[in-house]
Amino acid sequence: MTPVAARPLAGTTPRTTRNRSLPAWPVAGILLLYPLWWAAGLGVLIFPLMAVPMLFLLVRRRSAGRQILLPPGFIWWVIFLAAVVLSIAALGTDPPGTVAERASERLLAVGYKLAMYAALTVLLIYAGNLTEAELSRRRLVRLLAGMFVLTVLGGLLGMVAGNFEFTSPVEWLLPGQIRNKGFVRSLVHPYAAQIMDIVGGEKPRPAAPWGYTNTWGNNFGLLLPWLIVAAWWSRGAGRKLLAIGCLAVSVVPAVASLNRGLWIGVGLLLGYVAIRYVLAGRVWILILLPLLGGALTVALTLTPLGTTVSARMDNGKSNGVRSFLIEKALDGFAGSPVIGYGGTRNTLGGRNSITVGESAGCERCGNFTVGGNGQLWQLLYAHGAAGTAGYLGFFAYGLWRFRRDRSPIGIAGSAALVSSFSAMLWYNALVTPLAFMVLAYALLWRNQIEGELKT
Length: 455
Hints:
By secondary structure, this protein is mainly alpha-helical. The protein is built from 18 helices and 4 strands. It is 62% helix and 3% strand.
């Protein structure tokens, strides 16, 4: 006789049938609605805000008996986070040649960075534990491709309306003595471009919606591969043409940004992709690259873009400052090689004299930020060898672990990580660049778990 299954009592739900799936909205909401967060004055603050429900949902899933996976090589990231916390012990130290401050005066910036690192850790774990039914990899790729389109639109806005800015709702709600602080203003005040004198005369350099021109350039390189993958997967010819049009238009703000690091990063990215495709036997890439190079050369020759590139290459005003800050970062690393100083420091004066500092007539004179000119230098200076090894070890392990993934996600994700290693020489990664790096890592990780998506 066939046994009869026991029925649950009326009004109750068996524990095994509870819905403990992870909803897509925390991740999709950050990406899809980022223009709204930026305009509202939340911007990068949306990451720690969304980390709260993501953490709750992960804990709820674990309490229901569902396994929470950790990304491959996560021990390296734990080492990095531990070094970030331990380095706070050196926060009161004033390395030679830096402005003296109390540890308490540095806590706000350090607490902000620690909160962001924690939030992006939650984002990494949450995105990696999503299933195809909850948030498919194809949809996540499309969302990241949309962020590239948003970056291009923000770049065009910065070019045509460089002085565009407005007071956000969050900014309005803050007390005047708080919202007028430079650090707080950079978080909550939306603007289209940074106005700088780089090639003679003040000109706008695209920044929207990422806050800084360097962050804009960093995100451009990290997101570019995802637009190509999304277009590759698209079945409609119209969408492919729109993607090609977006790529063509993106050259304009990329050049106007005067961002040499971006130009180097894109070249490195294309070279890496070409090598991966050749190794996979797809030698047609060797025909495509010269065609792209030729088209770019024609565009630079026949338009004012070529003049802009030449002017930027002839004006290396930032070279001296960068060399000065790298030297200071390495000197500081030698002074505290294990855990660093817990955060960045401001130099006494400028690179030529300790008497040259900020003033009402020259706000950008002197008092440069040691560790503010590249993620690598910040890691060495702020968190020492332990933090640097943990951070680099995590992403390097990911590149090695997923090296055999020849799918579009495998190549695009690893290309994004490779470009980030170049970018860390001149760009800082917090907040959005590191967010896009961990999402690339999550996609590579999910591709390994769920099987490669090839078409």
